[in-house]
Amino acid sequence: MASAGSLVWVGFIEALPVVGSVKEAVEWVLAVAAEDSALAKEKLDVINGRLRKAYSRSSSESSGSSSGYSSQSTSGHSTPVAKKSSGLTAMHVESVAEINLMAHIREVMGKHDKKKGQPSAKLRPARANQLQKVQEETERKIRLVNQNFEFSAPLGDDGKRSRRGEHVINNGVITFYQKAVDDFMNEPTNLGIDGPLDRDTANAIMNELVVHFDEDELYINANALIYGEYCRVLKTALGEFLTVLRQGGRRQEDKDNAQNNVTHIIQHMNTEEAYVDPFARGKWIGNNSRKLSQFERIKVEVVTMFTNWTQYFDIVRDKLNFPA
């Protein structure tokens, strides 16, 4: 069992702890991780020099650790080790009572978690400006279809990243029509109607047009809010349209008004690309002209799907035996 007097040396690479009984060995690991070759060589020379001295001693003179020197071989509590390099942050090394080791690691990792997604001081003004623009653009787009929209909380980058990545075009477009009908009927309808998007287009949206953001990259998932609100408004309008179809005795004017309302919302949806995540699109396309062409081709399929919504709902009306 560890005692309060038993010390170990601890350093961190990001939130990854490096623990050892020899200070220079821990420093060497951090220097290698930070790709600071000069410092790594310096620490390795110290280690090798002390090992040579240890081997030169007789066994009767040996004491301390098996390496020939104790865990407190270098005086002082902490020493700066390495600079930030290649995305790795090598922190200082400090001695910690072995009995308190796990508590110390948890404390450092907790502080690291709180810092995730926080930009450096130099980047903060630019990111704050970009965030403000995203918030204003999000509000502008949503208020085209919901003039009463208000943010429940400010937009921001919480530092959390999806394991599956971020989709350039929201996956929800693939099943939107079917879910709109199911919501209206309050049950799965299983109409047996092929989806408006062909299989290759759907697969590309789900599996190809996907990117992953690092924690230090700015990512604001504003599109989830935009697409979600457009879907809510559009489903409500489609529900009103389906209600008119189901009540076939109502006036033609009612049908025209309901149809025009849906068309109006879809026009905004397509014009504003409400189903496209601009952060994901920018990273996925980059400067690649082939990817740009692929994105534009797939977007045209989605635009066509929404624009031709009446064709799909004519089939829905027949399948549900609504009056013509």
UniProtKB/TrEMBL annotation:
Signal peptide region: 1-15
Biased composition range(s): Low complexity: 56-78
Record's keyword annotation contains Signal: yes
Top-level division of the source organism's lineage: Eukaryota
Record's keyword annotation contains Signal: yes
Record region (Disordered): 55-86
Protein keywords: Signal
Protein name, as recorded: Uncharacterized protein LOC116223468 isoform X1
Organism per entry: Clupea harengus
